[in-house]
Amino acid sequence: MAPRGSQPGGAAALLTELRSAIEPAAARMAAIRTPLTQASELVGLAGRLWQAGREGDAEGFLRLDTQFHALVLEISGNEMFAKLHHLVDEVLSGRTHYGLMPRYPAPEALQLHVDVATAIQSGNADKAASAMLAIMQRTMAEMSSIWDQSIAAPGGEMLHLDSGAILGFS
Q1: How does pLDDT run across 81-114, given as a tens digit for each residue?
Q2: Could you write out the three-class secondary structure of the chain?
Q3: Overall fold of domain 8-166
Q4: Assuming Cys at both sites, which of 32, 38, 43, 44 could form a disulfide with 117, CB separation 3.0 to 4.6 Å?
């Protein structure tokens, strides 16, 4: 059996699994370690992210979403987690630029970002981790149906949708 990362969509799946392991832990640590000013900045980002999502502003949403996840990684206080923001940026950018993100994100997904931010602000480590895990689980569920699809190219040729190749990982 071929390694999962070499299968269609495998690299994107692996990166999302990595995010699922790291980001809830980062949110938990952020709730414990973050000064109020940075936590308030995160809450403000979540509010602007909500607005961009509700207005269908895909580019604004992407910019704010990457800032949100990068800030969670940064305020976790773990320098290794903070360095992973480039990976998260690439995954989020790839999803947006290749039409894998809905124009209007689900209200539940928007609320989960607000839940992460307010849990971090209030110092509720368990709630911060569980809300971030819910974001990751939602992402995995949404993307798993896409990772293994084949699509018809112009002219009828069948192509595999490989988000790993889209992101430059295959």
Answers
A1: 999 998 888 888 888 877 778 889 999 999 999 9
A2: CCCHHHCCCHHHHHHHHHHHHHHHHHHHHHHHHCCHHHHHHHHHHHHHHHHHHHHCCHHHHHHHHHHHHHHHHHHCCCHHHHHCHHHHHHHHHHHHHCCCCCCCCCHHHHHHHHHHHHHHHHCCHHHHHHHHHHHHHHHHHHHHHHHCCEEECCCCCEEECCHHHHCCCC
A3: Four Helix Bundle (Hemerythrin (Met), subunit A) (1.20.120)
A4: 43
Whole-model pTM?
0.81
Q: List Cβ neighbours of 21 (8 Å cut-off, separation of 6 or more).
A: none
